[in-house]
Amino acid sequence: MNTHPIGVFDSGLGGLSILQALQAGLPCEDFIYIADSGHAPYGERDDAHVIARSRAITRYLRGHHDIKMLVVACNTATAAAIDTLRQEHPGFPIVGVEPALKPAAAATHTRRIGVMATRGTLASARFQTLLGTVDQQAEFICQPCDGLAEAIEHTVSTGDATNLIALCALYSGAMGQFGHETGQIDTLVLGCTHYPFAQDHLCTLVGSSIQLIATGEPVARQTKRLLQTSAMLRTSGSGQLKLGTTGQAGLLQAAAAQWLPWQGDVESLSIA
Length: 272
Ligand code: DGL
Prior knowledge:
Layout: E1 6-10, H1 16-25, E2 31-35, H2 47-65, E3 69-72, H3 75-88, E4 94-95, H4 101-107, E5 112-117, H5 119-123, H6 125-134, E6 139-144, H7 148-158, H8 162-175, E7 187-190, H9 199-206, E8 211-213, H10 216-229, E9 241-245, H11 249-259, E10 267-268
Parallel strand pairs: 1-2, 1-3, 2-9, 3-4, 5-6, 5-7, 7-8, 9-10
Helix pairs in contact: 1-10, 2-3, 7-8, 8-9
Residues 10-12, 14, 40-43, 74-76, 118, 121, 149, 192-194 line the site of D-glutamic acid (DGL).
């Protein structure tokens, strides 16, 4: 058993959707979550920016918190930076997040699947390789969703969902018709960790019978497997959580109070 915390990071609030699943699946583990809101969004930035930020946060988490494992709770950062992180930290366990194309291919009946993700994720070689493993099984309609992660964060900070709803309508509409008839999309992959927090609006737009597929639970299962095989899984402990941000502490505070069983102070960080 290893009682060190697990590090988790995202460009902002989105990784909290992964943290929710991690806390549910690994209740004895301690977590430290970093929202890199001061350098967000990642999805419309170049790879060099995302790699530099991912390296800096990983160094910080290992250096200041002696984490036993890292979960990159961001599809965009996984696509751009996970290979670099693994090369720079050999032997250190790192779990990433990828759009759930395989589960979607297994779930669809109409064989038409919508994929919402950031521009960076969809353009990445990693995503294209993943797509190549399943594109014989179904047709994937890939929709870059510029501004959607920011609109989700804006809604948390102001309570105003006008722009969020407009963007959800724009992007779901652009993918085509949703439904269960031949030629319609019956399965929607949420390929950015922010998007589960827009799930209610998306459901209203595409219809509640459409399957929305996110990645929190598979990531939690994979994290647990890795901890078990390396004899690091905690079997006792009350599960402590620390939150830090490179952006506004109040924003992460508000989101965590809304989405997690958590109360406390968010640490303001400058991670260079
Ligand atoms: N949450 C991130 C992801 O899963 C991206 C959001 C952003 O563009 O920063 O891709």
